[in-house]
Design goal:
Layout (H helix, E strand, L loop, with lengths): L2 H24 L5 H10 L1 H34 L4 H100 L7 H25 L10 E3 H11 L1 H6 L3 E6 L10 E4 H18 L5 E9 L2 E8 L6 H4 L17 H11 L3 E6 L5 E7 L2 E2 L2
């Protein structure tokens, strides 16, 4: 019970005792029934006081009840010792009731405090146990992921050898085609795209190997405007976009235009990041879907936001999509977004999932991009 409530209760019990004393005084002595009723009512404040205030409260209310009983004793003084002592014994019962109930209540309160302390200790132990269990589960997850990465590292090493050999042959064929097709030829642009994508694929294989080995992503030398990189990624995905009749809109903020205030970043790295996100967006949207790409400024850097009108990503799963081997596609590896996150962070930026204005998912990439003149 709150302290204020205890004070109010004590004053109510005190008023009750005073009222009983006044009734004893005002009621004539021959009205024995009423006086017996008042005597029995006196046990209520004594018992309640002992329950809520312990032995001290019980004794104090018992003493006050005895004082309120004095006018009644005075009435029986003239009736002889037998009647007087019979009434006087009631005072002993008042005191006994206050002491006995007070002792029981005090013992109960001590046990209550003891159990409360024990309960708090148990609650603390449970929290520590729960925290340790969570840490153990997290450690187990990290161990499982490390084992997967270790296994993937061995597999990717052999795959890298198998992939790089055909890449070298394809690169050689592309070089031959580039020599035979003049630069002013309409299809020369596609040969350049082929050569560039072969180079990017070669870098991607190296990046996967570094990721599986836990190595940091190394910043590449070639820097290109982000606007150019976005247009290049859209061009590379043109076939898939046409197949599903997906409408892609690109909005470049005036502050981020490529005249004087544009931003540059690692071309190969950003192509890989944007390709991973765009491919996921293409797979997520339905036929005649929409993808919206925004490029703007953010503090001292730039913001790239890719939104789609697909089904979106559940909030509970949003935190897990950047973890390794977490995928929502049947044939997905679960490495695309985790690698993209590591690449963006290696460039000094961050990538987050937000709500899309189109109703689906939105990936926002914040980069401390460098302006070019």
């Amino acid at each position: 019970m709150k302290p204020n409530m205890k004070i109010i209760l004590f004053f109510l019990l005190l008023v009750f005792v005073i009222v009983i004393g006044v009734l004893h005084t005002l009621t004539p002595g021959y009205m024995i029934f009423y006086h017996d009723t008042y005597r029995r009512l006196s046990y209520f404040p004594i018992t309640i006081g002992a329950i809520f205030f312990g032995i001290r409260g019980g004794i104090l209310l018992a003493v006050l009840s005895c004082l309120a009983f004095v006018p009644h004793l005075y009435m029986f003084w003239a009736r002889g010792p037998q009647a007087y002592y019979s009434e006087l014994s009631e005072i002993i019962f008042y005191l006994a009731a206050g002491v006995v109930v007070g002792l029981i209540s005090s013992r109960k309160n001590k046990l209550k405090e003891k159990y409360k302390t024990l309960s708090e200790k148990l609650a603390g132990s449970y929290k520590r146990l729960h925290k340790q269990a969570s840490q153990l589960v997290e450690a187990e997850k990290q161990l499982g992921e490390s084992q997967k990465l270790s296994m993937l590292g061995h597999v990717s090493a052999s795959l890298a050898h198998e992939i790089k050999n055909p890449l070298a042959s394809i690169k050689g064929a592309a070089e031959i085609l580039a020599d035979e097709v003049p630069e002013n030829h309409p299809k020369h642009e596609f040969i350049e795209i082929m050569r560039m994508e072969i180079s990017r694929l070669n870098h991607s294989v190296d990046d996967v190997l570094k990721y599986c080995r836990g190595q940091q992503y190394q910043d590449k030398v070639r820097k290109e405007p982000i606007e150019k990189i976005i247009n290049q990624v859209v061009l590379l995905l043109e076939a898939g976009l046409k197949e599903k009749s997906i409408q892609v809109s690109i909005q470049i903020a005036r502050q981020a235009e490529s005249s004087k205030n544009g931003f540059v970043t690692d071309e190969a790295a950003m192509i890989q990041v944007l390709m991973n996100i765009m491919i996921n967006a293409v797979d997520a949207v339905e036929e005649n879907g929409k993808i919206f790409i925004e490029l703007g400024t953010y503090e001292r850097g730039c913001l790239i936001r890719i939104s789609d009108d697909g089904p979106g990503i559940d909030k509970n799963m949003a935190e897990k999509v950047f973890q390794s081997f977490v995928t929502f596609k049947e044939e997905g590896t679960g490495l695309g977004l985790s690698i993209s996150k590591r690449i963006v962070e290696s460039l000094g930026g961050k990538i987050v999932i937000e709500e899309s204005t189109l109703g689906g998912a939105a990936f926002s990439i914040f980069l401390p991009g460098k302006k070019y003149k």
